[in-house]
C-alpha cells in the first residue's frame, strides 16, 4: 500500500513538471518572436557594406535559437535534440495543434481503462500520459527514420553533383543552390538553407557546423568535415568527394544486406510487442471480469506490471542486439 500512497505525489510532480515546461515554452516562444522581429529589421537594412552587421545578426539568431529551457538538467539535451528534429520534420510550426490532436484519443483511452482501477483519477492520468508519450515516441521515431533514410539515399547523388560542379570550375560554396534546385527530398531543403546562410555572409565552416548539428547522420557529417577541411587546407576536393560517394554507396548496400538477414528477428520483435496490447484488448471485450481483476486487484496489478516489464525488457534486449549488429 506504500507504493499507492506515493501516487498523489507522483501525479502532483507530473502536473507541476508539465506546467513548468509549458511556461518555459511560452517564454521561449516570446523571445524567439522578438528575435525574429529584430532580425527582420536588420535584414531590411542590409547592403554590400554591412557585412559585419550581418554576421552579428546571424550570431544573435543562433544564440536565441537555443532557449534557456534547453539547459534544464538531465532532460535539457534531449529536449534540444528533439526540437531540432522537429524542425527537420516540419513539426515546429503547428506543434500545439498536433499535441492536442494526439492527446484527445490518449485521454479517452486512459480514462476508459483507469476508471475501473483502485485509484480511478490517478490511474487515468498516468495511463493517459503513458499513452501520449508512447504515441509521440512511436510517431517521432517512425518519421525520423523515414526522413533520415531518404536523406541518406540522396546524399551520394548530391555529392556526385557537387563533384561535377567543382570539375566545371565552380567553387563549392556556389554549388549548394544549384544542386538544391535539382534534388528531391529533405536534402534539397538543407542544401538550400546552407546556400541561404552563405549568401548572407556566413562562413562555410560555421554553415556546415550548424547543418551537421541539425542533421543527426554520420554520413552527412563526414561530408561536412571534408568540405571544411578542403577549404582550409586545400587539395583535390573532387577526388575526395568521389571516394566518399563510393564509400556511402557501399555502406548502403551493406545496410540492405544486414536488414535482409535480420528481418526475421525484427518481425519476431514486432509480433511479441503486439501480443500484450492485443491480449488485453481481447480480454476487455471477451472476459471483462479477468480484465477488471488486472486493474482493481493488487495481485492483478502485480501480474500486469510483471507482464509489461518482461515484454519491454525483451524488446529492449532485442533492439540493442540488432543495433549492435548494424553498427
TrEMBL record:
Keywords on record: Cell membrane, Membrane, Transmembrane, Transmembrane helix
Domain of life: Bacteria
TM region(s), chain numbering: 6-26, 119-140, 267-285, 305-322
Name of the protein: Tight adherence protein B
Organism whose genome encodes this protein: Marinomonas rhizomae
InterPro entries reported in the protein's UniProt record: T2SS_GspF_dom, T2SS_GspF_sf
Subcellular location: Cell membrane
Membrane topology, from the record: Multi-pass membrane protein
Organism ancestry: Bacteria, Pseudomonadati, Pseudomonadota, Gammaproteobacteria, Oceanospirillales
